[in-house]
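SAMPLE LOG
Freezer: B-3
Tube label: C17
Construct: single chain, 173 aa
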Amino acid sequence: GTIDLLISKPLSRMQIFMGRYLGAVAIVAFNIFYLILFTWLVLSVKSGVWNFNFLLSGIIIVITFSVLYSLMAFMGLLTTSGAFSLMITYLILFFSPLLLQRDNIYALLSSKIYGYILDGLYYILPKTAQLSVMTKNLVDGGVISSWMPLWSSVLFGIGITTLSIIIFKRKNF
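STRUCTURE (predicted):
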């Protein structure tokens, strides 16, 4: 119901979309960095261990949220259903660890076409399971062997946000 009010303002549709998107990401980023900064400070003062990688974990958490929120915004534009966009996001969170095990799943498949579909889904969709492993490694002080899950997820987020802006510009309300 607020879309009529928003598009009546002297702003472009891209400004409206990006304002709402970046506003939500900024609020989440503030809350995450507030939590992580003060948790890190309290734990570091009490234990005497100053793990600066713990602070970097907040960046990965915010990036993961922004990628998943871009998917929610895209699905919300397509279906005009907030509940459905939330379900799709949870579906991605559920299937991401399964796509990591795609090498083990190949043995169960009867046709190679299903393997190609699994590979396509793995390389296209955001890798939330691997991003959580990266966050855990940063907090534990471990080494991150590959930054590919982060970059491919960011590319997914940029692509889906761009597609959302194009759809929002052309959509009639």
